[in-house]
Design brief:
373 residues; mainly alpha
Amino acid sequence: HRNALGALYSGSVKGDIFYARSRRYPSSLAASLDADNIPADVYSNVIDTVNDSLDALHDYMKLRKRALELVDLRMYDLNVPLADEPDDPIPYVDAAGMVTEALAPLGVEYGELLREGFESRWIDVYENQGKRKGGYSWGCYGVHPYVLLNYGGTLRDVFTLAHEMGHSLHTWYSHKNQPQVYSDYTIFLAEVASTVNETLLLEWMLDKASRDEKVFLLNHYLDQVRTTIYRQAMFAEFERDTHFAAERGEALTSDFLCGAWRELNARYHGPEMSPDDLIEVEWARIPHFYSAFYVFKYVTGFAAASMLARRLREGSAGERERYLRFLSRGSSAYSLDILKEAGVDMTTPEPLQEAVASFREKTAMLAGLLGVA
């Protein structure tokens, strides 16, 4: 089916270009970023900074290959955990207590709101017949947020609880402090608060964990960086290159798309990876590509959250107040400006560089625990 799927994607790209040119934008990328007032340099900065740090991902590939004792590391081996998830079930009440304690750096007011959410039935906790899978947070103006969970007592479920409550309290603060027209935050900011919560929970757990728990937690974190920073940046680079090629008049045939995807995977994953031939057509199954230039926001959100979480752990009252103001801003200013007020400048490579530095540090920690040089 790859020729048909190539034609579909090519048609989507041509549609993006048509709308951009009909509105006199210099490129489809500029048109996509205009609503959030984001310069194209921010998008390029994400791709360039990640490319400058591909050696960190290559080191993680080497670690995985040696830890799993593989002759050839294949793409599907990236789904194999390096440690079993602890199997002692965590009661929901205990999970709520863990999240509340881990998020103490956010201050007393934030903690009280967390407890209100846990105790006042904001959350549909358990699986039920006909209930959609996963976790989800949503709210309408004037009413507290609601959270959908399918809590099963695993450590991953505890992270999901922290994540969704990050969304919910972001919504609560924005709705409380903004008129309805500015009460919803943008997609560019949407994953920041949830990832701050996950990062604070991870660091809190690492401080208390046994050796085996640390291996699991570090593996969980490193795979999160791999899939959120590196993989999404690779997606973003593919989108940019295919749109720019079409704007130059080149045909986006399935051979062109497969060749571009094969080259990106080889460059990002490095010499330790032995890609299978079929990986070259993986682009055909990525639905995000039909909402062009969206996925880079996962990268910027993760990088911004990593920087904010580190500062919050360092513990000054000023940082807490600045962060709560960030949560309260909704869409009352442009997203980049709201982040700058919080102390994160996404027009520079610094936030991403800091996230990569943490990735390197935790790769070395995991290598030491596993005894893998």
